[in-house]
Write a structure and sequence with these properties.
Blueprint lengths: L1 H11 L4 H8 L3 H8 L7 H10 L4 H5 L2
């Protein structure tokens, strides 16, 4: 699932949740909810996340 992949990519790159949240222009609580699957985010945010992780949106959403 997308939220699991965000947490995975973040952790293997050594990026703390608060750091990624700041890069995305949101607070840590909002990112935590995304990673837990409690909320979603925009395609624009998905594009930024893919760019930060040097991957594609497809890679983030395909199981």
């Amino acid at each position: 699932m997308l939220q699991n992949k965000i947490a995975y990519h973040r952790k293997i790159r050594g990026i703390k949740q608060g750091e990624l949240a700041k890069m995305l222009g949101m607070n840590q609580s909002a990112l935590s909810k995304i990673e837990l699957g409690k909320t979603t985010f925009t395609v624009d945010k998905a594009h930024v996340i893919a760019t930060i992780f040097d991957t594609t949106i497809d890679e983030l959403i395909v199981k």
